[in-house]
Structure formats: structure tokens, C-alpha cells
């Protein structure tokens, strides 16, 4: 295996399952062959998770992420950040711990941008708690793009072994989708997706399938005209540029097993159209990866799962898949110089 820099793992919502999963993935480091990572969190949050879950995980505070590799085998490296404004209550997301959530992400991005970390892997955040604290971004995806600098256009892709999907619009109300879906947006998102599949996923000629917005992809304009006025022209432009793009496809018939063999990624006009099939096919194996950033970022596909936090039953599979995908992408970039 190539020697990549350590991965920076953010703590996510402290009241959610992030602390528990951080311990669980470290315990699985040998069985799953995980590349070294450190957690960016106040030490107390992880100590508390150890107590709550009866996990005997040795924690080692490091002052420099470069120490991760030498510590990782025998202890979970912790790059400590400031404590939360008020104590963390497992199972409850609070605006008063938003400082921890935001600092963990910001610091991880700094490390990735200066090359000290090979990738950022994020534990889930509770968006409503962050909004209550004044956080202005819909989610990680847009926040990471802002931290990456002007002109960064992020693309959210969710992937498991059965399907890759990109929601063309992300965290907006369904009633706003129609106004946000433009030919420019579709072209931009398709181009970034195709470039990322080539660079990071080893697909030389990616096949993209764009889902229609309306029932039966508009049924020749009788059930909506966005396919004809917005989507078809964008797809024609992409094809003229040499990209392998099909669509707009009727969304209800493009996700069954046989249909999925016709493309490498499905791009869908709205969030749930994309995320329902991928999370249904394999919730625990899914990874959320942000394309178009100047650094690697992956995340589990699930959320903060407040309803099971503290019970010890949260499955680490998706976070393990996210750590593995991040390491594979980093190794590939190191090997190819891409
Ligand atoms: N990457 C992220 O930061 C991210 C991703 C998705 C959702 N979220 C946020 O998480 C919060 C809760 O969202 P939600 O309730 O829609 O989805 P969720 O994924 O947190 O929970 C959905 C269901 O799946 C279960 N579940 C989730 N992860 C699990 C795991 N690892 N093991 C076992 N069961 C698991 C939960 O207990 C719940 O029953 C929201 O604020 C949402 O915005 C964040
Ligand atoms: N829509 C994503 C999902 O359901 O998996 C999720 O909310 C994560 O979004 P960010 O990575 O932008 O936080």
C-alpha cells in the first residue's frame, strides 16, 4: 500500500452517533485494513463515549497530525480542539455544541489543504442545530466549498457497490427545484462528475444518465415541459462536447438492476429522487463523496441517528466504507500524480 498522509476525521454532531462510531472504526482498524486517521474533537467527548459504551479504547492526544501513523496501531489519535460551550448530552443535538462541529470541520479542511491530511472524512452533522447557532450553509457540501475558496463548485455524489447518484439540486424545498434546475447547472454538474469519475474512480469514459423531473420524463411535454426546455438542450450540449450522457430518462424505471448496467452514475433533479434508490439498495454500505473540491472528502451516507445514540447499536459500516474510499482516492492520486 502507498503511504498516504493521515486522514482527518471530524467528530460531527457530538450528541449523535459520531463519537461512538469514531471508537468503533478504530477498533476495526486491523480487520478492515484502515489507513491511519485521527479524530478532531475535544478529548472529553471521546472519553465520555468510551465510558458510555464500555469501550476500552486508548485515546492519545497528539499535537501534530504527523504523529498519527506512529500512534494509530496502539491508540486512537486525537487532535484536540476546544470544548463545547455547554456539556454534550448524548441523543440531543444542541446549538451550544456547534462551535465544536464547525471547528472540527474547519481544522480538518486546513490540514487537507496544506497536505498534512490526505483527506477529510466527516461524521454526520445535525443541520437544524447548526442553523439554530447561525450556520449559514445548507450542509457540509456547501460549507466545504466555501472553505475551499471562491469558484469552487461542489457536487454531491452518493455511492455504494450497486449505484452512484448525484442530486443536481441538494438541500432546497421541492417547490424551489424547478427554478434552480437550469441547463447551466446540469452541464456544470455533469462535467464535474465525469471528470471525477475519470480521476478518482478509474472510469475512462464515464456513462452518465440524467433522470427526468416529471412523470414519464414529461410524456412528450404533456406532463411537464422541463425535460424539453431545460434538460434535453443541456444533454445535447454535453454530448456535443463528447460526454456519454443519456436522458432525460423516466426516473421510475432507471434504477432496477438491469437498467443500472447502462450507466455509471445517475444524475437526478432533486435530493430524494437520487438518495432514495441509493440508500434503499444499500444503506450501510453507502458513502457520500463531495466532487469538485481541491481536497478529498467523504462521509457516511447516514445522519446523526439521535434516536439510537448512546445505545451502542450504531453500525460503523458506512463510516468504514467512507474511510476506505477516501484512502483509495488518496492512494490513486499519489500514484498517478493526479
Ligand atoms: N453527512 C451528514 O452530515 C448527514 C447525512 C445525512 C443526514 N444528516 C443529518 O442527520 C440528521 C438526522 O437525519 P435522518 O434522521 O433523516 O437520518 P439518519 O440517517 O440519522 O437516521 C435514519 C434512520 O437510520 C438509522 N441509522 C442511521 N445511521 C445508522 C447507523 N450507523 N447504524 C444503525 N442505524 C442507523 C437511524 O437510527 C434512523 O432510524 C438530520 O439533521 C440530517 O440533516 C447528516
Ligand atoms: N443529503 C445528504 C444525505 O442525506 O446523505 C446529507 O444530508 C449530507 O449532506 P452534507 O454532506 O452536505 O452535510
From TrEMBL:
UniProt signal peptide: none
Compartment list: Cytoplasm
Binding site residues for a divalent metal cation: 171, 216, 271
Family matches, as Gene3D superfamilies: Isopropylmalate Dehydrogenase (3.40.718.10)
Listed cofactors: Zn(2+); Mg(2+); Co(2+)
EC number: 1.1.1.262
Protein's name according to its UniProt entry: 4-hydroxythreonine-4-phosphate dehydrogenase
Amino acid at each position: 500500500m502507498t503511504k498516504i498522509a493521515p486522514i482527518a476525521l471530524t467528530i460531527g454532531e457530538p450528541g449523535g452517533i459520531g463519537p461512538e462510531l469514531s471508537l468503533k472504526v478504530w477498533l476495526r482498524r486491523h480487520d478492515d485494513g484502515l489507513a491511519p486517521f485521527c479524530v478532531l474533537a475535544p478529548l472529553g467527548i471521546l472519553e465520555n463515549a468510551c465510558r458510555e459504551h464500555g469501550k476500552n479504547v486508548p485515546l492519545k492526544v497528539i499535537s501534530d497530525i504527523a504523529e498519527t501513523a506512529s500512534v494509530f496501531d496502539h491508540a486512537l489519535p486525537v487532535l484536540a480542539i476546544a470544548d463545547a460551550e455547554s456539556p454534550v448530552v448524548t441523543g440531543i443535538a444542541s446549538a451550544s455544541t456547534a462551535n465544536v462541529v464547525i471547528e472540527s470541520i474547519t481544522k480538518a479542511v486546513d490540514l487537507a489543504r496544506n497536505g498534512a491530511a490526505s483527506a477529510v472524512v466527516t461524521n454526520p452533522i445535525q443541520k437544524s442545530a447548526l442553523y439554530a447557532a447561525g450556520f449559514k450553509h445548507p450542509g457540509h457540501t456547501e460549507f466545504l466549498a466555501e472553505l475551499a475558496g471562491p469558484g469552487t463548485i461542489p457536487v454531491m455524489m452518493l455511492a455504494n457497490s450497486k449505484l452512484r447518484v448525484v442530486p443536481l439540486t441538494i438541500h432546497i424545498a421541492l417547490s424551489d427545484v424547478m427554478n434552480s434546475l437550469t441547463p447551466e447547472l446540469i452541464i456544470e454538474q455533469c462535467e464535474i462528475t465525469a471528470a471525477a469519475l475519470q480521476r478518482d474512480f478509474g472510469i475512462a469514459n464515464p456513462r452518465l444518465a440524467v433522470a427526468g423531473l416529471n412523470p414519464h420524463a414529461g410524456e412528450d411535454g404533456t406532463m411537464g415541459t422541463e425535460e424539453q426546455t431545460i434538460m434535453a438542450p443541456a444533454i445535447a450540449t454535453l454530448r456535443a462536447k463528447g460526454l456519454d450522457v443519456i436522458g432525460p430518462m423516466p426516473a421510475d424505471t432507471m434504477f432496477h438492476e438491469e437498467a443500472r448496467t447502462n450507466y455509471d452514475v445517475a444524475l437526478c433533479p432533486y435530493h430524494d429522487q437520487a438518495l432514495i434508490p441509493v440508500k434503499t439498495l444499500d444503506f450501510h454500505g453507502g458513502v457520500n463523496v463531495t466532487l469538485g473540491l481541491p481536497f478529498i472528502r467523504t462521509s457516511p451516507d447516514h445522519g446523526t441517528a439521535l434516536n439510537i445514540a448512546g445505545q451502542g447499536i450504531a453500525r460503523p459500516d458506512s463510516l468504514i466504507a467512507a474511510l476506505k474510499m477516501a484512502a483509495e482516492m488518496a492512494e490513486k492520486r499519489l500514484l498517478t500524480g493526479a
